[in-house]
Design goal:
205 residues; alpha+beta; 22% helix; globular
Length: 205
């Protein structure tokens, strides 16, 4: 009876380990002036030569000065992903596309096509964060997300609006595989099963 109870207990333990809840892990991939890549214009630290880079070209950019960057590929089964852009001097409190406001659009690339996620939100002469949901774009995140900004898309504005970007943060939640069962557990299970079989044979004789 004891061996049977142990066998049932061990079977339940193995089932729990192999079919238990899948763990989740969040990974952030940040692009800024340190790692944005060639021809990217994230705001660098102030220097004597450029004391206010956020308001100085080429970091402060206008219409027809669009640019793009790439995030690292993040593998695994993704359950959630978002992109947060930190920008300065975005004159659009709601992020909508109403004319006579600054319209700075963020796009991502899928294949050969660029798709608009939405517009940046923010006030004049202030830093602001805009977060975009990437549900439906997990394969692009797996491959390495390509992002670009289209600056001042309301082409009727005179003079042109401008903005500068501080950083781009890709946040991804991935599902991890269940923890493997140690070899010792399998060995113990085999021994218990053998003893149970031996006990049954002895009872039948």
């Amino acid at each position: 009876m004891t061996i049977i109870r142990l066998t049932g207990l061990l079977a339940s333990l193995i089932l729990l380990v192999t079919t238990g809840p899948v763990a989740a892990m969040t990974v952030d991939d940040t692009r800024d002036y340190t790692n944005g890549g060639v021809d990217t214009y994230f705001i660098p630290p102030a220097t004597a030569a450029v004391p206010n880079p956020k308001a100085t070209e080429p970091y402060y950019r206008y219409r027809d000065q669009d640019w793009d960057w790439a995030h690292s590929a993040i593998g695994g089964a993704i359950s959630a992903a978002s992109l947060t852009i930190t920008a300065w001097d975005v004159d659009n409190a709601t992020g909508d596309s109403t004319p006579d406001f600054e319209i700075d659009s963020i796009q991502i690339k899928s294949g050969l096509t660029w798709h608009t996620l939405g517009n940046l939100k923010g006030a004049s002469n202030e830093f602001s964060d805009t977060t975009f949901d990437l549900s439906g774009w997990f394969s692009e995140v797996n491959a390495g997300l390509m992002v670009r900004i289209l600056i001042d898309r309301d082409l009727t504005n005179t003079p042109f609006w401008g903005a500068s970007l501080d950083r781009s943060v890709l946040s991804v939640t991935t599902d991890l595989n269940p923890v493997p069962i140690p070899a010792a557990v399998w060995l113990f299970a085999t021994a218990i099963a053998g003893l149970a079989g031996f006990g049954r044979r002895k009872t039948n004789t």
